[in-house]
Amino acid sequence: MALRAAGRTSLVDSAVEQLRGQLADGEWAVGDRIPTEHELAQQLGVGRNTVREAVRVLVHSGLLESRQGNGTFVRSTADPAAVLHGVRHAGAADVLELRVALEAEAARLAAARRDTHDLLRLRAALTTLREEGDRDADADLAFHLAVVGATRNAAFVEVYRFFSAQVHEVLVEALGDREMPPVDIDAHEDLVAAIEAGDPEAAERQARELLREPMETVAALTERAR
């Protein structure tokens, strides 16, 4: 696919989007070295500084990787920005289903892998949740991050961090804080107890139970809106 010349306005943004398109279309595979700044500048019809800035944006987003003295290589063709856009525009029910899937598996792994430090962190997060109130989103997020941290899976932690803020944003925008039921502290306590007991099946069950009422609330609100 030939690159078209970028317009004079928003040159960097235009260059970024064209390069994203090249990656999405499979112009370069993961591990390939992309053309030099000079070559890209000629293809795009922009200056090398514009290309440099565009490449920097894509390096920051995780699509490209710059290797000192070797050039710039394709790190991923899956654009995180596109994923983020998809989550932000998903329905509240879809987002909650995703949250259930992530948190149920996190709870199962946490019960199998947790150590004393993880349990202390979970208990501290639960105490904060009780003290801060049953509608404190930050305290609730900190609790669930403590559960995910106990999975001992760095990739899981990063994925959950990425999605959790978007999940909250979608729910608030779609439903409003006052529409959602208060956080069930006792259900959180039961989840911690299952993780402490080292029972993966019980932990997964409790994680799903913890999100049952929010799921039912979303279903009822969706039905009411029809």
Write the layout of secondary structure elements.
Blueprint: H1 11-24, H2 37-44, H3 48-60, E1 64-67, E2 71-74, H4 80-88, H5 92-113, H6 116-132, H7 137-149, H8 154-175, H9 185-196, H10 200-210, H11 212-225
Antiparallel strand pairs: 1-2
Mass-distribution shape = elongated
Q: Portion of residues in helices?
A: 55-70%
Strand order of the largest sheet: 1-2
The major pleated sheet works out as: 2 strands, antiparallel
Mean pLDDT: 84
Name the poorly predicted regions.
5-9
Separation of the first and last Cα atoms: 44 Å
Share in β-strands? under 5%
Number of helices: 11
Structural class: mainly alpha
Q: Please tell me how large the radius of gyration is.
A: 22 Å
Order of helices and strands: HHHEEHHHHHHHH
- Strands, total number: 2
Describe the structure using short key phrases.
4% strand; 226 residues; elongated; 11 helices; single chain; two-stranded antiparallel sheet; mainly alpha
Please provide a brief summary of the model.
InterPro entries: GntR_C (IPR011711), TF_FadR/GntR_C (IPR008920), Tscrpt_reg_HTH_GntR (IPR000524), WH-like_DNA-bd_sf (IPR036388), WH_DNA-bd_sf (IPR036390). Helix content is 69%, strand content 4%.
